[in-house]
Amino acid sequence: MNETILTQADEKILDGVLENFAELAKIPRPSKHEAQVGKFLQKFFVERGLEVVRDKFNNVIAEIPASPGKENFPLTILQAHMDMVCVARDGVDFNPLRDPIKLIRDEKFLSADGTSLGADDGIGVAEILYLVDNRDAFTHGKIRAIFTVDEEQGMSGANGADEKFFTDASYMINCDSENFGEIVVGCAGTVHVTFSREVHYVRPDTKLFTNIAITVGNLRGGHSGEEISCGRINALKVAVQILKQIGRHGKIRLSSIAGGKAFNAIPNQAEFVISTDVPAADVEKICADIEHSLQKIFAATDPNIKIETRIVPRPEKVLHVKDGEFLISLMTLIHSGVYVMSPENHAEVFASANLGIVCMNDDCVELKILARANADELIFELMDSFEQAGRLCQFETKFSPPTPAWQFNAKSKLLKLAEKVFTEQNGHAPEVKTIHVGLETSSFAKKNPALDIISIGTTNENIHTPNERLHLDTVAPHVKFIAGLLEKIAESN
Ligand SMILES: [Zn+2]
Q: What is the CA radius of gyration of the chain?
């Protein structure tokens, strides 16, 4: 009998996949610059006599015929994204539009010389190409390979791809997860919320004799999806806590406030300037007390939180009293942090919001929030609460079009098959989980709600950083997992 992919030596599979990966690494492919890699992928299929299209977004879609006798079995989509996050270590001369990724392979890992590696998601692409070239070494129904663009910067490829590529398929194996041994079965939808209010300034009253700048810093911050459940402090929430505490002792007028850098990052720094009739020594004591108690409560996550005060000259202007009060009220009312934990798994976050940015200029103050939920209903619930808070505080509230959640499907037939194949091949069950960040699968599930989807991958560490590395020992098992699953699908109709 011929060698099947399931009996091939792991080294042979690894070398084959890495050959494809090395070809990809030669082609610069940051998000929104995928024309060259798109052409490369198209050519790959043309050379093999397979039907392939490159759509107007530059997504590449190829058809792989079924093994003889399996033509009427359900169609399975294998999917990965062709773009990558390009970042370099400080001091490394790297132009992501021009320079190839230089690979370093040792016993255990593949990494890049001073830059991100692009195993996210180049290894998914390389594995699918390997499976296409070895399609006669395992039994399978019809396969469609879909390579999308721009996953890392807006998912315009997945969102734009024509529905027709998804509606005739039964199964999809998305190869964009980062831990071999995990099967991802759900992800979060998101909405970006922007509150804004026109503001007016006045000269500060001379009776407000204390003019002081207060800085909240030395916080860990973190990613608002992956790290929202880590119990870390939001610097803007601390700022509002300080403002309210000082406000209990006297009048305050806010001159400026700023904190946070991105919708999706927990703010690790905030600064504001006030004029107040509370003596400076009392303000300093309030700040020291809050710092001390937060250091104690958050000793495990943010033990080094620093709240610093600095006497400043009297500001030229301060916010009109109403503008300041409404701003502080809104910052207080907005929920920031975990909102609901998963009903299926109490260790997973189901809904959350992150007050990411507060910024102010001459005529406007803005607050920016990112909300996520693994069920669309909870996104709508959070949107309602934000709208109410905005209205009460007389802010204008704007929402981006919400991206849908990929909701866990307890009846997934593909998941059952995948659990069975993984356990047979690896001697232990995989971990099945939902994640609280976005994947392209949300978009695909929306195009075809009946499409049965899982997301899997090799183990890729430190993605989106120059320390990204691929665990080589997970490549062949992952390829065998996909091939075994395709065989199982072709038996199970
Ligand atoms: Zn990815």
A: 26
